[in-house]
Amino acid sequence: YRGLGFEALTQFDSAHATYEAGRSAEISRGQRRELEGRLTLLARTRLAAEIRQALARESTLADVPPPPNTIAVLPWVYSGSNPEYRALERGIAHLVVSDLAKVSRIRLLERERVQALVDELALSGQGRIDESTAARSGHLLGAAHVLQGSIREAGGNGVMELQARVVNTTSAKVDATGQATDRLQQLFAMEKAIVFQVLDQLGIEPTPAERRAISERPTADLQAFLAFSRGLEAQDRGDASSASSFFNSAAVRDPGFRAARDRAATAEGAARAADAAPR
């Protein structure tokens, strides 16, 4: 409760230190989960505050050159008719962030920070694929490049087309593109093909070990990944309880899906923390 008080006063460092101190105390597993969940919720609140601060000083950010090889990946945009696939907007962005993060020459902005900007600017699907919006987003996030992506159904029979563009935030020009078309069952292969196309056009050569790491699939079960993507969607709208349920469903379908297991535990703690907080 002391931590919640610090949060109400927007003293985020003090709140974080208080929750961390509580985790080292003699407490039950459930209480520890609540504290860990509170830390997760605090991180979201903190990111939103940092984005608002960046917006307040937006005019000065354009004069500060972003670090080289820094990339922000926006949620992708689905333009098809199947509502079950809309969650892939988050899921594919998660895959791209995870794969590009395996390349040591690239610095990836965390997905949650980018989502905080999308929420603050209320970026619609069209806004997330506009080049000028990408340049502005890059300035606000401190990224040299912004990767935009689109998903559309191509000709029926479960065929999907994925397209990506990497926008230079200084010039607002497209520095790299990627494209792949195949059946939905080949989603992971398509995403990885695009990652390699983008790296090649940016002049970044992964090491053999990095190539192998990028080629690894998080799960062999497409339905597990769709459930995981819906979990990300629920998490982004602040519904930790639903997020926990979706992540757990993904982990049950594929017990080897590590990202699903990890996020299920985090979302469960966040749900408990949200329920325990006074209204």
Characterization of the model:
There is one protein chain. The protein has 279 residues and is an alpha/beta fold. 56% of the residues lie in helices and 13% in strands. The chain contains 12 helices and 6 strands. It has helices at residues 2-8, 12-23, 29-56, 58-61, 88-100, 111-121, 131-141, 187-201, 208-215, 222-236, 240-253, 258-276, and strands at 70-73, 77-78, 107-108, 145-153, 159-168, 174-183. Strands 1, 2, 3, 4, 5 and 6 form a 6-stranded mixed beta sheet that branches.
- Oligomeric state of the chains? single chain
Instruction: Please report the number of helical segments.
Output: 12
- The gross shape turns out to be globular
The radius of gyration computed from the alpha-carbon positions, rounded to a whole number of angstroms, is 19 Å
Broad structural category: alpha/beta
**Biggest sheet: strands, sense, closure?**
6 strands, mixed
Q: Termini separation (Å)?
A: 12 Å
